[in-house]
Design the sequence.
């Protein structure tokens, strides 16, 4: 659904609009495919290099699609093939969808078929996309707030992890499928030991040691987790946490959500929030390894009651890309503790701790 291969630049409005109307994707031009599998035949044949390829594609998308789309286009030379190039066109999922072509009479969407990758959108799908134009994020936030209303940890120091479609599209996991997945995963996931049914979702409340949690996942694919947060220790009069204290609930909630969302095709928002964290410090290493740790923990103090950070990714690839997601969210969170380090150093520490905690 996310990739289209073409030998030449053809049907630009149809290809670009179908990506924008569905989940976004990449159009690779200059590559032949196997007719049975639709997989690329390598090495790529490419196109003759000529000026104006980027402009041609962008102009066609802007003039042949309504509302117009401006894709990102890159022309890449093929090594060892002088004068030959491959063109990459990146199209995001659009909140301005539906995008129509042919004098605004046809709305195309992507399918998972290798032989028929496009189909005309049905009236219900077009109506949904029109509604999404007006309320692109409100519906998702309403689903999150509904889950928050059932959490028993609303008035305590806590963390919240949300993994949700950027633009929820009706039922991502129909009721029976959601229930069957919960039954199958119950023995494997820490946050799913005793689940029950709630309105349009399954939920579980419990504890792992002193770590208390509430987990919920809806038929729309919205995963919501809140967990109690306890400081690791106190230095002087300042409670503080280590990286592992921040990483554990995030990694556990992310793994739980991705286990349910496996094999779905959607763009995901991953949001991590801290509530009532003002006055909590951070130590980037064991206190025995830090000179004057009491001074350091006071300097690395969170001064915000509420910290919210987020990133996005593809449901299909996030399982293999968890270290990147965890690193990016930790980088943003630690900024609120007056702490920063290089991404490579932080990634190494995140991977090391996550492996010890069986998070990756």
Sequence:
């Amino acid at each position: 659904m996310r990739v289209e291969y073409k030998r030449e630049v053809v049907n630009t409005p149809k290809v670009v609009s179908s990506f924008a109307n569905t989940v976004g994707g990449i159009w690779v031009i200059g590559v032949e495919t196997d007719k049975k599998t639709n997989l690329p035949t390598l090495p790529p044949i490419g196109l003759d290099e000529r000026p104006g390829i980027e402009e041609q594609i962008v102009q066609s998308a802007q003039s042949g699609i309504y509302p117009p789309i401006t894709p990102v286009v890159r022309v890449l030379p093929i090594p060892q093939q002088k004068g030959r190039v491959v063109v990459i066109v990146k199209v995001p999922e659009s909140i301005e969808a539906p995008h129509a072509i042919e004098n605004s009479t046809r709305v195309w969407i992507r399918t998972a078929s290798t032989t028929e990758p496009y189909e005309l959108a049905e009236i219900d799908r077009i109506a949904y996309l029109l509604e999404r134009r007006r309320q692109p994020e409100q519906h998702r936030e309403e689903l999150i707030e509904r889950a928050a209303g059932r959490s028993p940890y609303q008035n305590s120091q806590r963390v919240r992890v949300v993994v949700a479609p950027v633009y929820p599209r009706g039922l991502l996991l129909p009721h029976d499928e959601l229930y069957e997945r919960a039954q199958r995963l119950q023995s494997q996931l820490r946050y799913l030991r005793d689940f029950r049914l709630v309105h349009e979702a399954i939920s579980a409340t419990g504890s792992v040691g002193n770590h208390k949690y509430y987990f919920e996942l809806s038929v729309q694919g919205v995963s919501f987790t809140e967990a109690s947060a306890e400081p690791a220790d106190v230095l002087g009069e300042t409670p503080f946490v280590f990286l592992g204290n921040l990483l554990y609930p995030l990694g556990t909630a992310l793994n739980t959500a991705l286990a349910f969302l496996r094999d779905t095709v959607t763009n995901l928002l991953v949001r991590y929030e801290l509530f009532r964290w003002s006055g909590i410090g951070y130590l980037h290493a064991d206190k025995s390894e830090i000179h004057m740790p009491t001074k350091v923990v006071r300097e690395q103090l969170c001064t915000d009651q509420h910290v919210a950070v987020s990133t996005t990714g593809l449901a299909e690839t996030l399982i293999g890309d968890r270290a990147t997601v965890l690193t990016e969210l930790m980088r943003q969170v630690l900024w609120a503790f007056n702490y920063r380090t290089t991404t490579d150093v932080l990634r190494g520490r995140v991977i090391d701790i996550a492996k010890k905690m069986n998070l990756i």
Q: What stands out?
A: The chain has two domains: 3-134, 138-356. Residues 50 and 353 are 50 Å apart (CA to CA). The first helix runs from residue 12 to 21.
